[in-house]
Design goal:
Chain A: It catalyses: (S)-dihydroorotate + H2O = N-carbamoyl-L-aspartate + H(+). The complex is a heterodimer. By secondary structure, chain A is an alpha/beta fold. Chain A is 30% helix and 22% strand. The model of chain B has no long low-confidence stretch (mean pLDDT 93). The chains are: A alpha/beta, B alpha/beta.
Chain lengths: 427, 310
């Protein structure tokens, strides 16, 4: 592999532009550099950050390759600035055994655009009843376990999962949703759902499970990760739990940082997501919690769906929206342009913290000589208009269709190799 | 008027015009041997019912036929709908087949809105005949027509809506329409059967039926569905009946002129005592009768009125 020079970039958006030389997958020099035969990416003063890490991606393979494959999802990830993604376990068949997780990891390596880390199911078939073979999957390289899409709602099963995970040094990521409080739920429980006649998904259904799991994690001394935090109350619970020393981390999705349940007025299921879009007060609180580190990171919950699963009546539609290629721009819009985060903060929430949470040694590293060259180059001044059909995913279900967003990925670099450049995947 | 999907935000002038048209149609047809007007001759109206509803479907069918429209009924069983065809494909099929108006009943809230979106380019009108727990606008219009017959102008009239507001599309449509027409609405229900955020609706809310009855001009009872009784929304049918059933003692608390409405089908003995349902104070059969005229008026405003005025 040729050396790579990324010319005229500002690491973390700070200082005067410098050149970054990458050799053998490692940052070899920073400053004024020259190297014979090097591939050159012109930075034009853009912001250089460690490559993004997504703890929460649905790649749909195996089972729903009509909506996304590991190849198309990897392309979307690279174009979105990601160098590592965690592929959720709710595939068909479910990734609740070593065979499936090894398959996903192998396909990820074959595609080679992004490190694809399979998430293992916590329970067999995501049924919430019997622990899956966490140890065998951990031996196969799984670092994160989740029944995402379903809550591990039985407190005893959750306790056992947390206890068992301790010895494996892995993290259990919970989709917090008390199922008895969300039977038939279609939208955030509140004025908007009442007006539209959609059955409510109460905030307490999330908050109660997060509170319970924080207590359990503290009790057994295990690490807990909370998926897609959506309510102000959950942020309060997390702050409380962290203050008393609980080893809990949490993620928020880009869409929960921007959109509210006001979007539901048209009944267009492109806005249907689980947990549901909440209120403006929730959005404000989630942004503040992310800025303060109460919520650790941003995760996309990238969820591609076929047209027929979205262009239908609200209750029949599948929840979820695309996220990999819009995440950075939404973070810029909601956190940078509002002054809540600087570029160091963006690196923290999109790269460093997710890498730490999942225990990835070579991702989310500082931009320093000798560190792995997993990098993303961001043009903060760019503005672009979202067109679902033009995104790399097979599916096109984005709620940001037609929206003009700030910030664009100029290039993504995985171990010294350019995996995305100005909106294209290099041949 | 292109579609009738909801009474939320309805222009009071338009609502009054529809009600006036219904009253005129009723008058025009009264005593006639052949109840047939030529107004919608050559127009095709299709009813698509994804939920069973004899009352509403028949009412629409008769309304269309009395206006001389060609009325085709599609039910979810025995059709492509029953074979799992998507709502969108069904909509496109109906439009391609030449429907001028699709009347839809669907268990999903918002289904009529979605349908109207898909049929927009085809120029087909959509009438929401009940979508999930969202709205049932023609029911509200027929309720208003019935109340106007009994009470006259609804401005400053007081109407109590009693029972399962949470799951009731009838209640939502009535709240919007009655308040638009100037009435004061009181919702009376246990807290488990009231929606979140109801305190911000333009209504009064109460849990005490007896305290509210003396000041009401009308009481509208809502149907309590069987699954609510077993779903823990209230302890028992007996307790519901004691707290919220309209019996003869409670009827006596109402002013003499007050009217009793029920969208049907009724649970006699629980929601309403038989003697109350059959009393002259109850306008329940009037509601059914007015339903036909109101739906004729709606079809007229959707399919005939614009042509005449343009």
């Amino acid at each position: 592999m040729n050396p790579l020079i990324i010319r005229g970039v500002r690491p973390y958006g700070e200082g005067e532009p410098v050149d970054v030389l990458v050799r053998d997958g490692v940052v070899a020099a920073i400053g004024e550099v020259a190297e014979e035969g090097a591939e050159v990416v012109e930075g034009g003063g853009a912001v250089l950050l460690p490559g993004f890490v997504d703890l929460h991606t649905h790649l749909r393979e195996p089972g729903r390759e009509d909506t996304e494959t590991i190849a198309t999802g990897s392309a979307a990830a690279a174009l979105g600035g990601y160098t590592a993604v965690f592929a959720m376990a709710n595939t068909d068949p479910v990734a609740d055994n070593a065979v499936i997780v090894e398959h996903v990891a192998r396909r990820g390596r074959e595609v080679g655009l992004v490190d694809v880390h399979p998430v293992g199911a916590v329970t067999v078939g995501l049924k919430g009843e019997k622990l899956a073979e966490l140890g065998t999957m951990a031996k196969a390289g799984v670092r994160v376990f989740s029944d995402d899409g379903h809550c591990v709602h039985d407190p005893l099963v959750m306790r056992r999962a947390l206890e068992y995970s301790k010895a494996l040094d892995v993290v259990v990521a919970q989709h917090a949703e008390e199922p008895r409080l969300t039977v038939g739920a279609q939208a955030h429980e509140g004025e908007q759902a009442a007006r539209l006649g959609l059955q409510g998904w109460p905030a307490a259904a999330e908050e109660a499970v997060v509170a319970r799991d924080c207590l359990l994690a503290r009790q057994v001394g295990a690490r807990l990760h909370v998926c897609h935090v959506s309510t102000a109350g959950t942020a309060d619970v997390l702050a409380w739990a962290k203050a008393r020393g609980t080893e809990v981390s949490a993620e928020v999705t880009p869409h929960h940082l921007l959109l509210t349940d006001e979007r539901l007025a048209t009944y267009d299921p492109v806005n249907k997501v689980n947990p549901p879009l909440r209120t403006a007060d929730d959005v404000r609180k989630l942004r503040e919690a992310l800025a303060a580190g109460v919520i650790d990171c941003v995760a996309t919950d990238h969820a591609p769906h076929a047209v027929q699963d979205k262009d239908c009546e609200w209750s029949a539609a599948r929840p979820g929206m695309l996220g990999l290629q819009t995440a950075l721009s939404i973070v810029v819009e909601t956190m940078v342009e509002t002054g809540l985060l600087d570029w160091r903060g963006v690196a923290r929430v999109l790269s460093e913290r997710p890498a730490e949470i999942a225990g990835l040694p070579d991702q989310g590293r500082p931009i320093e000589v000798g560190e792995p060259a997993n990098l993303v180059l961001v043009d903060p001044g760019a503005r672009w208009t979202v067109r679902g059909a033009e995104l790399a995913s097979i599916a096109a279900n984005t709620p940001f269709e037609g929206m003009e967003l700030p910030g664009a990925v100029v290039a993504t670099v995985l171990r010294g190799r350019v995996t995305a450049l100005r909106g294209r995947i290099p041949a | 008027m292109r579609h009738l999907l909801s009474t939320e935000g309805i222009d009071p002038g338009l609502a009054t015009a529809v009600l006036d048209t219904a009253a005129r149609l009723k008058q025009a047809l009264e005593g006639r041997e052949v109840r047939k007007l030529p107004t919608l001759r050559g127009r095709t109206v299709i009813t698509v019912f994804y939920e069973n509803s004899t009352r509403t479907r028949v009412s629409f069918e008769i309304a269309g036929k009395w206006m001389s429209a060609d009325v085709v009924n599609v039910s979810s069983s025995g059709s492509s709908v029953g074979k799992g065809e998507s709502l969108r494909d069904t909509a496109l099929t109906l439009a391609a087949a030449g429907a001028d108006c699709v009347i839809v009943r669907h268990p999903a809230s918002g289904a009529a809105h979605r349908l109207a979106g898909w049929l927009h380019e085809a120029g087909t009108s959509v009438v929401n005949a009940g979508d999930g727990t969202h709205e049932h606008p023609t029911q509200a219009l027929l309720d208003a027509a019935t109340l106007r017959e009994r009470l006259g102008d609804l401005r400053d009239r007081r109407v109590a809506i009693v029972g399962d507001v949470l799951h009731s599309r009838v209640a939502r449509s009535n709240v919007h329409l009655l308040t638009a027409l100037g009435a004061e609405v009181t919702l009376i229900a246990p807290p488990t059967l009231l929606p979140a955020g109801v305190e911000n609706w333009p209504v009064h809310v109460s849990h005490e039926l007896d305290a509210e009855l003396p000041s009401q001009d009308a009481v509208m009872l809502l149907r309590v569905q069987a699954e609510r009784m077993h779903g823990g929304f209230f302890p028992s049918a007996r307790e519901y009946s004691i707290a919220y059933g309209l019996n003869e003692n409670r009827l006596r608390l109402l002013p003499d002129h007050a009217v009793v409405l029920h969208p049907g089908p009724m649970l006699r003995g629980m929601e309403i005592a038989s003697s109350v349902a059959d009393s002259p104070r109850a306008a329940i059969t009037d509601q059914v009768r007015n339903g036909v005229h109101v739906r004729m008026a709606v079809l007229y405003h959707l399919l005939a009125h614009e042509e005449e005025t343009s």
